[in-house]
Structures are given as C-alpha cells and as structure tokens.
Amino acid sequence: MQVDEPVRLPRLSRAAVCGGTHGNELSGVYLVREMLKPENRKEDGGPASLLMLLSNPRAVQQCTRYVDTDLNRCFTHATLNGPASEGAPYEIFRARELNNLLGPKGSRAAVDLICDLHNTTANMGLCFIAYSDCDWVCLHIFRHLQMPDTPMRFIHFDVSTKESYSLDSIGKHGFAMEIGPQPHGCIKSNIYTAMREGVQHMRDWVSCFNSGESNVSFKTSKCFLSQDRDFCLLRPGEPLFQTFSGETVKYQGAEALYAFFINECAYYKKGIALSLARKRRVSVPSIRVRGS
Ligand SMILES: [Zn+2]
C-alpha cells in the first residue's frame, strides 16, 4: 500500500448511539434522552440513519448497573446464539433484541457504527475502547476529537471478534466512549458536556467522511497526568495498595505497565482493583469514502 493513497472505505449509512447499557451511568442516559427530543433531531448530513436508544431500559428505570447480569458482557456469539431457557437473565433476552435491531453481529446487515456511552468512577478522562487497533474509522473519529480540557486515550482490548462481549461489537465498526470520573447514579456537568461534545464531534466526522471530503482531518490531543494516577506508568516494585493495617503492597509484575480503571467501583464485586495496559503506537492511513 502506497503511503499517500487513502484507504477507500464504504459509506457509513447507519449508525447508533447507545446510552444506559449500564443503567446507573447517567451521562449517556441523559444524553440519549436529550437527543431523542424532536427539537434536537437535526439533519446534519451525518449518517443517513442515526438510531438513538437506551440499551437497558429496566436497569435505567432502577438506576442500577444491571437487573440480572451485566448486559455489556452478553454479546459474545455463544450468548447471542446459544439456547436460552425461560428463566434466563433479562439481559440475555435484551442482548438478543439489540442484536436483532443493530446486528446481527458479524453480518452485512449490521449497522455501520455503534457508539456506546459509558461512565467510570475512575479518573480516566475520555477513553475510546475498541477491540481493534486497525479499525481506521474508529481511529479517525478518535483523532478528530479535540477537547482541550479533557485527557483522551484510545484503549485497545486485545480480544478476538468471536469473544468480544460488549454492545459495540455488534456493529461493523464500534467503540465505547467511557468518561470519568463520575459516581454512578450521579450526573456531573463537565462529564456530561464532554460526552455531548464527543458525540457531536463523531457526528461531524461521519458527515464529513460521507460527503467524500478528503479533509477528514487529524487533530492531536493533549495528554497529561491526572492526580488519581490513571494512565501513569506503574513500575515493578512501586507501591500499589495500602492494607487497612498500614502495610504497603508493591507491584510485583516484571514489566512496567500503565494502570487504568483504578478503583472503579463497579468492579469491586468482580474483585478487580485496576487494569494494566501496554502503550502502543499505531500509524493510521488517510481514508476516503468509496466512490468519491
Ligand atoms: Zn459502563
């Protein structure tokens, strides 16, 4: 592939913005409700069809992460296509409904792009979370965002398509937009505003791409250290936890890694204190809609 030749990709005709996949992550819930108001349904030349929906309405109603089981772990091929007994968790039925509406996962009928909105209690700024580090559409949308006051990162979960488990994996392209810190069940204006701007930037980028414009620009984001230490490098031997009796527990890994989702309250039940990632550099080719 020549470096200068843009990669030709199909038009993004159908996109979905989903909130309330976790019912107590309120920025996405309020943003989707707001976007669904008739006065806000503007035609901006974005995707020909933009679907907005609350993924887990029962959990939203109860302002809880989920009713029976975590909906955002129900989108593996096995869960979507396996047998479901009558007493199966509500979220399994809901995942299948969503798969019919936005998928089926892995098929040509699936929507072109899914943006799933989440909040974290961790101090992570704005994160794009995706299963691919060579999905140029997601990477271009990410690079199009420019929010000087919000740190931004792209997190690649290295999981195969078959094992990918979250709602955004149903679309041909998909990512979760995860913004924090915000306590679950609360809404903070700065976090809500960052999410609203992020979604608007995404829509702008999609309309620009669909129009065939070559100037789907790159913008660079600022990165700075946060006081809660998400995305700081954790080196072997550095202090990691303090026990209630006052002892320091050190990081025993052999490799220096970046910590994130530090002390995320939804992960207490799972016994996950933090996640660790390796930093990678990805070169993204320029892209152009096919046929322009
Ligand atoms: Zn979530």
From TrEMBL:
Q: List the keywords (alphabetical).
A: Cell membrane, Cytoplasm, Hydrolase, Membrane, Metal-binding, Zinc
The Swiss-Prot or TrEMBL record annotates one GO molecular function as: hydrolase activity, acting on ester bonds
State a single Pfam family of this protein. Answer: AstE_AspA_cat
What does the record's cofactor remark say about binding? Binds 1 zinc ion per subunit.
Location in or out of the cell: Apical cell membrane; Cytoplasm
- Span-the-membrane segments of this chain are none
Give the record's family classification: Belongs to the AspA/AstE family. Aspartoacylase subfamily.
This chain belongs to which protein, by name?
N-acyl-aromatic-L-amino acid amidohydrolase
Organism from which the protein derives: Poecilia latipinna
